[in-house]
Amino acid sequence: MKLRIGTVFLVSLILTWALPARAQDLGPGFTKVKDGIYVYAAKPGNSTCSVILTDEGPVIIDACQRPPDTHQFMAGVKKLTDKPVRFLIDTEVHNDHTFGHWVFSPPAVVINHEGAGEAMKKYFDPKRAPTLAAQSAEMRDAVKGYKMITPHLEYKNKMTINLGERTFELLYLKNVHSEADTAVWLPKERVLFAASAANVKSIINLRPFVTIPDVLASYKLMKSLNPEIVVPGHGPVSTTKIFDEYEGFYTLLVQRVQEMASKGKSLDEIKKELKMPEFADWSGQDRLGVNIDVAYKSVKK
Ligand SMILES: [Zn+2]
Question: Ligand 1 mean position to 48 CA, how many Å?
Answer without folding.
Answer: 11
